[in-house]
Amino acid sequence: MKRILALTLLLSVCAAMATAARDKASEALLRRICPEAAGRIMLEIGPHADGNDYFEISGRNGKPRIVGNNSVSVATGLHWYLKNHCGVHLSWNNMRAQLPALLPLPTQTVRKQTPLTMRYDFNYCTFSYSMAFWDWERWEKEIDWMALHGINMPLAIVGMESAWRNMLLRLGYSEKEVGDFIAGPAFLAWWAMNNLEGWGGPLPASWYENRTQLQKKILARMKELGMTPVLPGYCGMMPHDADEKLGLQVVKGDRWNGYVRPANLLPTDERFDEIADIYYEELTRLYGKADFYSMDPFHEMGDVEVNYAEAGRKLLAAMKRCRPGARWVIQGWTENPRPQLLEAIEPGQLVILDLFSECRPMWGIPSVWRRYEGYGPHDWLFCMLENFGANVGLHGRMDQLIDNFRQTKTNPLAKNIKGIGLTMEGSGGNPVMFELMCELPWMGSDIPGKEEWTARYVRNRYGCDDPDLQAAWQVLIDGIYNCPAGNNQQGPHESIFCGRPSTDNFQVKSWSKMRNYYDPATTLRAARLMAKAAPRMRGNNNYEFDLVDICRQALADQGRRQYQRAMSDYRTFSRSDFRKSSRRFLDMLLLQDRLLGTRPEFRLGTWTEAARALGQTEEEKDLYEWNARVQLTTWGNRECADKGGLRDYANKEWQGLLKDFYYPRWERWMQALDRQMEEDSGPRPDALGGGPNANKTSSELFAMALPSAPVIDWYAMEEPWTLLKGGYTAQPEGDAVDVALEVMEYLQNE
Description:
The protein has about 750 residues and is α/β, with parallel strands linked by helices. The strands form three sheets. It has an eight-stranded parallel sheet, covered by helices on one side. It has a five-stranded mixed sheet with strand order 1-2-4-3-5.
């Protein structure tokens, strides 16, 4: 029997070799990541067998040969070969490959396959938190990254505002009214998700043209590589005044963190089909039709007076009139998709993104969002959210991710799983977690533990098996990269440097749900081990990025400890100690700024320069930079920042932002505390009972005796910074290794 199976496999491999053809799309990708590699690696498309995606790595005529059933499979196999055979790991911080002079050939054919043929990418938020100002050059790299990591089903919403603009103009809205409705570039995601109107706008006409042309390039390249883009469908959103303007029947939700929400067109309105058809006509005219459309009606709205079942049927029918064979992609998030909607839609029509599968899975296993029947008969994808607000910080749930994914292999509620998804709010950080997630579908039932997998990852990422690097990463995966079950925090452990000051700072943004789960000594230990490898690893791009990132985390963690020392000195009225401890805290913040300035990925100027570059006039450049600055800091106006709780949601440990925005807040706070202690130790009443408080009542004196920190109008400090222009560049300053070693020496001298 074993001989028969071996012969069958050999025959299938031979058949694949005989029928394979050159994959020109993957060859072009290889030339982009490594121009000198052209012709050195054979990239071919073979037959599509048994419904699975697959790739094979072998040798032929002295060259590496990679065969897959489509271009994405071939590209995935290419990256697998580069990682595991050449020590070349391509990531957001490094998309150029330096190949060895002699390319190694596998000793035997490597074959990987997966039944999880839908591999999705992006959250709506990613398009604003990370991609708001990307040009084609940056998008081209991202599409290559997706192909190399097996992504074949990316959300593609760039330029959707152009279709909306055309639709609203056809319905009788003026250009001004359209401008008041569609948000600015850094806030388009929350407009698209039915959360707000107009904030950050109005958009100039040049923006619509620029984004329309960019989207056409994006879609063309995605399709060239065999990807199936997910376009934005019509979910019933309308301007909040559509009832008055057009006489429509709409439902309106409560304000979203201080913002007026768009309205939702009721499915019973006689013009529902007409308006939906106009939207799809305009979207199709600009970007063609799609096999998948993304729609998230009633997103984060709570319960509203609407027939969810009828709404679902109407939205599906409108999509089907545009593209009969299309499927509806919907997020599994909080109360969505509503049970009534699921019951109303036939199986096979929906693809549900279980958005936070590594922490709060809804598909049936225990979690705070558990649905005991899962998604019933509907197809769904296992997704990793990982990052909220594109915050900077080491973070991961390695054991949870691996264990939850393993359960999809045996749990009956997972029978309709069709793939995986990356649904981060911000990209570019924690490449280790995204590498793990993208490899999981190709592992079959042989999924290793985090220790074994990470050891291979370290070899691949740095191109060597350095003992200090291995030790550093084993420390990290047992601590900060292993957020445990039961901890529901949203993304990275936030840096104390980024928070609005108080005497009891912990989390930075309002909804982070942070809880301590790792010892800060572990990140310091990992940073020291990383730094120890510097003499051997200097010049290695992946190493230098990780060295800065891990040292940044260690400095932030020690900064939190230093903050606690300063507050202890304040509470115990140790004035001289407070001045020393608060000064050291401020110095640590400035040192962090200098460390991060050595890498473009951690520089504010990378973000603001990209924003200004999209403008065609000074007025446009100023608008885009204002969008960029506001999103990072106040997020909105005073009401939204203070009462709505949005301030610092997108906080970043970035050079420039630390020094010019976060540092002045902390410096003012420390000065205010010092001044308060000085005043509290001032002149006392004279012997006859005189003095400024001599005539106060007992209740007034009692109130004065209660502890009270200074009150500072932070928004009044923050808003002026958002109105500034220029002053930041993407160009790195200083040597990353030298400054990282300086940080380690500084922390050694506590």
